[in-house]
Design a protein that fits this description.
Helices cover 43% and strands 10% of the residues. The protein is of the alpha/beta class. The strands form four sheets. It has a seven-stranded parallel β-sheet with strand order 13-14-12-15-16-11-17, sandwiched between helices.
């Protein structure tokens, strides 16, 4: 295994007893298939080995980040298959993403257990639904609706309810949540009230849209992805003969990421199992970050209650991250509260020491992005591959400024969440070309001067855009080159692992990898949201935008929502193997008011800060500050633009304390919420909207984001009388509460 940059290589040792436990992650692309069942266990640590050998009865694996959970469960399945205890076709391993399922299939194939089914819940259910539908219902299975947003929009229109783009997305998510929690339209308002769920619209309206959406699906004979699970559950419940058929087929189940199981998925799993207990689950309550989709860690936390005789194994040896990264991760989760926190796992790093995490403060978001790009460029110059670096943020809209900064710095990048590697047009074209060259053999003139498999691949792909040097800059041309370069590197690794391999052998390998979605690495810095980074890892990770209001996100209000945000940051921290940077900015745009604060989750971890309930500071690592101190501007003397310094004379500009054409650091979402609130308030008091606050005053509020009555009173246009009438509501909206919650002041004349 290649050591991280700056860390000396260690000689490989073959067994755990000799100190040479095989790394939990970063495995070789083409390992040798173990010769025997016992050889499958080689290189596992004692806890991983215990998991692998626990093949009977219920098993619960509590696995911390970087502890080799996928390794443990794939070796468990492979050991059972190779020892003759498990029949490959009788095992169903389920997880939550196609990528994770593909990785599992790839690892099982490398371990000599290629006949095992490894699928997502939806994929496994869809196969069963397609097979049993003619027998259970008759006719063809209804068409699967790929995107439900358009149908939700039509349902809302038919209900005469207007939804903007963001509301449409939120209502669609709410319908998905309702279905995975098995909530029907009529019950939705009551369930929202009971669970204190923060609905994006009036629950009665969402219920109405939800009911119409279901009606439109029935009218058009289509089903959505949630229906796949619901219909499979219904068939297995109603048709005992079909349920028995499935149980005869699958007799042993493995569930990865069990903390993310929804009530509907758990119901399906129960039906698959029947009265058996041949179940192995793997999860970590400290990485529960999808509760907004209906996921709950309760099934994991209650596993031992449901299965008193279960074998429980804890994996806490972290093979991914240095002690410095693990220390920060443990400290972050050490301040958590709630039931999941009570079951947290204290990780123990198995790596050599590395650099301290860097805490970086910048004047504004562009400066933060530029500083991050500079540090990334330095890491690449020091030998860290671009593909081993990631920039992680809370929401996808944060990516643009980092895309620009990396492009300006000449650093290649890729956006996480794009189409899968083997579905890219250039990869499909390359596969066709390689297949054609393999069939032609020595008759292809392209291969006349090529000696060896890598040279043949380079010759073929040179006709598709691959060159020895990458194209300058970024964009589609660079993306295409990176895909082809990944295939070239794969050919080099394949030839090294299997000397004498032919082009036909490589084509067969590519076909198997495409079927398993086992993609090679594309070289480019990864830009991704924290949610989409789950399950991935890099040598260097930059966690950016760690400000209050973004981490935790503004709309996280309840204690449990705040704790989930903490867990999300924990997931981000534990993606880093060696280098870790945490940064925030004091203002949104250059010249803006330096009123932002670093995330509360960093209290007690970043130098100079104190955790709540503690007396001193904690945490290692230096603090790095971005260029240029940001000074707060006073309002004495002539009013001057806080951006360019020009003297202001226009009343509207003076209210904003900037020229109209100077950049604004206004929170647009907050401004829209204030406008919506103002419209309702003006209607209540029977006065024009400007009598509540003018547009300029609302803009000034959205730029200042006051956190107290004193700060609000300092904004031009907010006098004592309006502060008394509207201050409570405005401050509530600025704090992230829904506008409706701020409408409770008494109504009187302006």
């Amino acid at each position: 295994m290649r050591p991280p940059c700056g860390q000396p290589p260690r000689p490989p040792l073959p067994t755990w007893q000799h100190g040479g436990v095989t790394a939990a992650t970063h495995s070789s692309l083409f390992p040798q298939v173990p010769e025997s069942a016992d050889a499958v266990l080689d290189g596992l640590d004692p806890e991983q080995r215990e998991v692998a050998m626990a093949l009977h009865g219920p098993v619960c694996v509590l696995a911390g980040a970087g502890t080799g959970k996928t390794r443990a469960i794939t070796h468990r399945i492979a050991y059972g298959v190779r020892a003759g205890i498990l029949q490959p076709a009788s095992v169903l391993a389920v997880t939550f993403t196609n990528r994770a399922a593909g990785e599992m299939r790839g690892r099982l194939r490398q371990l000599g257990a290629g006949g095992v089914q490894a699928r997502t819940f939806h994929s496994a259910a869809l196969r069963q639904l397609q097979y049993f539908w003619p027998k259970a219902v008759g006719g063809d299975l209804p068409r699967l609706l790929e995107r439900k947003v358009q149908l939700v929009a039509e349902a809302a229109a038919r209900c005469r309810i207007r939804l903007d783009r963001n509301e449409l997305r939120d209502v669609t998510s709410e319908i998905e949540w309702s279905k995975v929690t098995q909530t029907v339209p009529a019950d939705y308002p009551a369930v929202v009230a009971k669970t204190q769920r923060d609905a994006p619209r009036d629950p009665a309206e969402i219920s109405q849209i939800y009911a119409m959406y279901e009606q439109l699906k029935r009218d058009r004979s289509v089903i959505d992805f949630e229906d796949v699970l619901l219909l499979t559950v219904a068939i297995l419940q109603d048709r005992h003969d079909i349920a028995d058929h499935v149980r005869r087929q699958y007799q042993h189940f493995v569930v990865d990421e069990y903390q993310d199981v929804s009530p509907l998925q758990q119901r399906l799993l129960d039906l698959w199992l029947g009265d058996r207990d041949t179940l192995c689950v793997v999860g970590d309550a400290g990485q529960t970050i999808y509760s907004f989709t209906g996921a709950t860690p309760d099934h994991l936390l209650n596993f031992r209650t449901r299965h008193p005789n279960a074998t429980v194994v804890k994996l806490v040896r972290d093979y991914r991250s240095t002690p410095q990264v693990v220390h920060l991760a443990n400290g972050l989760l050490g301040q958590a509260r709630g039931r999941a926190a009570e079951h947290r796992l204290e990780l123990v790093s198995q790596r050599e020491p590395g650099p301290d995490p860097v805490h970086a403060e910048y004047a504004d978001e562009p400066a933060e992005a530029e500083g991050t790009a500079r540090r990334i460029r330095d890491l690449i110059a020091a030998g860290v591959p671009a593909g081993e670096i990631a920039v992680l943020y809370r929401v996808n809209s944060q990516s643009e400024v980092y895309e620009q900064a990396l492009a300006d710095a000449g650093v290649p990048y890729q956006l996480r969440g794009a189409e899968r590697f083997f579905e890219r047009a250039e990869v499909r074209e390359a596969g066709i070309a390689l297949r054609g060259a393999a069939r032609a053999g020595g008759n292809d003139s392209l291969l006349d001067d090529a000696e060896g498999l890598p040279a043949e691949v380079r010759a073929v792909l040179s006709t598709k855009g691959w060159t020895t040097e990458p194209p300058a800059g970024s964009g589609a041309v660079r993306d295409r080159w990176e895909s082809l370069a990944a295939l070239v590197r794969l050919a080099e690794d394949f030839e090294q692992a299997k000397p004498g391999a032919t082009l036909s052998d490589l084509v067969a390998e590519l076909d198997e990898r495409a079927a398993a979605q086992h993609a090679p690495t594309v070289q480019g810095v990864t830009l991704a949201s924290l949610h989409s980074a789950k399950g991935l890892e890099w040598d260097a990770v930059f966690l950016v935008g760690l400000n209050e209001g973004m981490m935790p996100i503004t709309y996280a209000k309840t204690d449990e929502q705040i704790e989930e945000e903490r867990r999300l940051l924990y997931v981000g921290v534990t993606r880093a193997r060696f280098h870790l940077s945490l940064s925030w900015s004091l203002s949104r745009s250059p010249g803006g008011r330096a009123g932002r604060r670093p995330s509360r989750f960093l209290n007690g971890l970043r130098p100079g800060s104190v955790a709540l309930g503690t007396r001193g500071a904690a945490g290692g690592g230096g603090i790095e500050r971005g260029p240029g101190p940001v000074a707060k501007r006073g309002r004495r003397g002539p009013a001057r633009c806080r951006v360019c310094g020009k003297t202001l004379t226009d009343a509207g500009e003076m209210k904003l304390m900037r020229c109209d054409d100077c950049p604004s650091d206004m929170d647009e979402a907050l401004y829209e919420r204030l406008r919506d609130w103002r419209a309702v308030r003006a209607k209540e008091i029977g006065q024009p909207a400007f009598c509540v606050f003018t547009d300029k005053t609302l803009m000034a509020i959205a730029e200042a984001v006051p956190g107290s009555a004193g700060e609000l009173a300092g904004i031009s246009g907010v006098g004592a009388r309006k502060l008394d009438r509207f201050g409570t509501a405005v401050l509530a909206i600025c704090a992230g509460e829904r506008p409706e919650e701020g409408l409770g002041d008494a109504v009187d004349e302006v």
